[in-house]
Each structure stands twice: as structure tokens, then as C-alpha cells.
Amino acid sequence: MRSRFEKVVVIGWGKTAADVLNYVTKRQDTFVYRTLCIECETHGMSKLHAICDGSGAEYAYIPDKKKALETIEAITEPALVISAGNTCLFPKRIIEKENLEIINFHSALLPEFPGRNAQSWAIWEGEKTAGATWHYIESSVDTGDIIAQRETPVTEDMRAYELTRDIMEKASEAFTEFYDELLIRHIEGRPQPKPEGERKIYYSWELPGGGVCSVNDPPEQIYRMLRAMDYGKNDIFPPARIRLADGRECEIMRYMKRQNAALQAGQKIHVEEEERRVYLALNDMTELMIKYKLKDQAAEEKSFIQASDNLQKMEAGGGPELDIQVIWIDTGGAAVSEAALQNRRAA
Amino acid sequence: MEKKILDILADVNDELLTYTGNNMVDDSIVNSFELISIISELEDTFDIEIDAGEVTEENFGNKDRIIALIKRMTGE
């Protein structure tokens, strides 16, 4: 059986890209095409290179997004481009190339939450369900016709990394269900419903709740914000902050919902100044513990200097990447330290 | 303490208890999400903060390294 495409390109990073690449390379002999994987961002836990090595697929690490896009633009044969965990925006000239068909994975039930970190916004907005969408690419962000969607529940205590994991599992599952058919024929996509009013796109620098809460905010809202920003040790977002009763704003180091049978009726806030902890009653039996650290003056100054430098660069026309740098990642979630990453690069 | 740590690891993947290698991530014993879960559970259980810089192969390569890290952090 021969595919409509002579080449299949997987561009992206993380678990979904790895699952997709795994499946694509397993099908390449059956459907007679060549596979190319492009990683613009990589990390110590990435499996993409190894998958290519093991399957004879071509692998390219191209950190310069412009060059990565040029590589795709230079393709002349019929090709399917699969964007999964990819942060390169495809320009119109590539989208309109007749030999290319481009599909993308988005971590929300489009048309809900287009843009970045959709799973965080689903938690922050108190959605009961979230999900994965595969859609064709158009020149506007996350608007293309839907090929497949899968729902997953957002449970009461779910954190962003847990929802990310579930969504990615759904994305991989859906992909294997439609991929073979897509190789043979164009799947008619379902147009996305037009949202009422202005369409809100979420950007990487936007934080749920602004990333800052106050001890006087409803505890459920604080808990929702913390869960929405929680990617473990990955700095997808900067650390959340809490404003104490005296007005000081502190970085949150850790939080935990826990049972406390000793909570007194009506007790709302308890502060242990020496331990730098705030306890907020979620209900009569459960509390939210938040551990914070006091402002580090040196770090604040460093941060200010960095911000000033970035501003100067932006004003000079060579601004920093808007995507937040991640120390260690996988999935949109994984873990290896920068030191380990450097060791691996050295190896 | 060791039992608590081993329980946390077993909850994620009981293969971790018999794994004898030095990089449980590279060897696909745990995935990235499971590693995040382990770290979060360890922090909550032992009331500690594990800095991102401490998430290395040296500290999280296998169960013995994790136990050694938690012992150091809790002063046991």
C-alpha cells in the first residue's frame, strides 16, 4: 500500500512527538515513505534521536526555528508535516505550498483555549473536561479544521502536569486511529465552531491568575491557580507568588492540600511566620498549606537587570524568544537537570 | 524512612524496587511524568523542598540514590 506522501516530517518535542514518531517510523515500510524528524528544542530525556537511529529515519536538531522552517519549505516532494509539541509558527507561504499537508496537535478541545499552555487554562477556568485536538494548520493560530478530538476529565485535585500526561495519552491514541487513513486519503476536517465575541489566544507569557494570589483570596481559587501552574520542577511558568497580609509578596516554594481534623470552625488563615507557611482552610477538614520564601534581594536585582537587558534587545529589534526557557523537560513535562543535559551533550 | 520511600516508588512503578541500573529515566523505568510524581510525593511526605538542580542522575538514578538524597535532606 502506498502513501500519498513520499515524506513524513515530525516536528516538535516531548512525549507526543515521541509517540507519533514511533508510530510513523513503524508504518514507513508498509506505506513506503521516508521519515524526517526535526527537533528545535531538545532536552536530556528526549527519545526522538534514538527512535530515528533505531528506525533509519532522518534526524535533524535545528535550534534556529527560522532554519527549521526553511528545511520544511525546501521539501519538494509530497509530504505530510506533523506538528506535535512544536512551537514554530508556520508562515502562510509554507501552509499554502501545494505539496505539503500540515497537521498539528493542540492540548485542548478546540476551539477552547487556543495558544500556549492550554491545559493550565482549563484548570484555572475550572473546566470539568479537557482534551486533545488534531487539526489541519491554517495561517491563524489553532483555527484549522478538526481531524480528531478526545476528551479527558479534569479531576478536583489535578495538577497541570497530570492533565498534560492524560491529554498526551489521548493525543497519541487518537493519532494511531486516524494516521493510516490520512496516508491514503485526505480526511475531511470538521470546521471549528466560531466563538461568540472576540477569540482569545493564550500566550506563553500569560499566567493563570497573573501568577500571584493573596492570602485573602478564596482558598479554592488559590489552589486552582497553584495546580494550573504546577509542572513539577519544570519552569514552564515562573514560580507562583503569594501576597501576605502585611503586603509582602513572596515566592511560593511548595503547596499541599491535606486533611486537618483539628481545624477550628470558622478558622480561615493560620500563618507560621518562622516556618514561612500559610495554612488556608478549604473546608472544615481540609487545608491548603503554602510554603513561601522571603524575597531574595540579590535575585530580584539580577532579574531586574536581565529584564532591562531584554528590553534593550527588544528595542534594538533582536528581542529574546518569547517562549519561556525550560531547565529540564520532557513532555511538556519531564525531568533532567541542566547539568545532566550538559553531560549528555558532552557525551 | 526507607519503607516510606520504597512505598512511594512502588506506587509509581514497582520495577523501581528491583532496578539495579543507574539511570531509571534513560532505561525507561520511569517516564518524565512519573518522575515529577515521585518528587512531589517525596516533598509532601518528608516535608522537604527538592530544588530543580538536585534532580540529577546522581540523586535520582535509582532507589538507593533517592534514599541517600532524602536521608541527607532530612538529616537522618
List the helices and strands and how they pair.
The complex is a heterodimer of chains A (347) and B (76).
Chain A: E1 7-12, H1 15-31, E2 34-39, H2 48-55, E3 58-61, H3 65-73, E4 79-84, H4 92-95, E5 100-106, H5 118-124, E6 129-136, E7 146-153, H6 160-184, E8 212-214, H7 219-228, E9 241-243, E10 249-259, E11 269-272, E12 277-281, E13 286-293, H8 297-315, H9 338-346
Chain B: H1 2-12, H2 32-46, H3 57-60, H4 63-74
Briefly, what is this?
The complex is a heterodimer of chains A (347) and B (76). Chain A has 347 residues and is of the alpha/beta class. Helices cover 31% and strands 23% of the residues of chain A.
Structure, explained:
The complex is a heterodimer of chains A (347) and B (76). Chain A folds into two domains: 7-184, Rossmann fold (3-Layer(aba) Sandwich); 208-293, Methionyl-tRNA Fmet Formyltransferase, Chain A, domain 2 (Roll). Helices cover 31% and strands 23% of the residues of chain A. Chain A has nine helices and 13 strands. In chain A, helix 1 (15-31) packs parallel to helix 2 (48-55), helix 1 (15-31) runs parallel beside helix 6 and helix 5 (118-124) runs antiparallel to helix 7. In chain A, 39% of the residues are buried. Chain B is mostly helical and 76 residues long. Chain B has one domain: Non-ribosomal Peptide Synthetase Peptidyl Carrier Protein, Chain A. Chain B contains four helices and no strands. Chain B has helices at residues 2-12, 32-46, 57-60, 63-74. In chain B, helix 1 (2-12) packs antiparallel against helix 2. The longest helix of chain B is centred in the middle third of the chain and has 15 residues, at 32-46. Chain B starts with a helix and ends with a helix. The interface between A and B is medium-sized, with 30 and 22 residues.
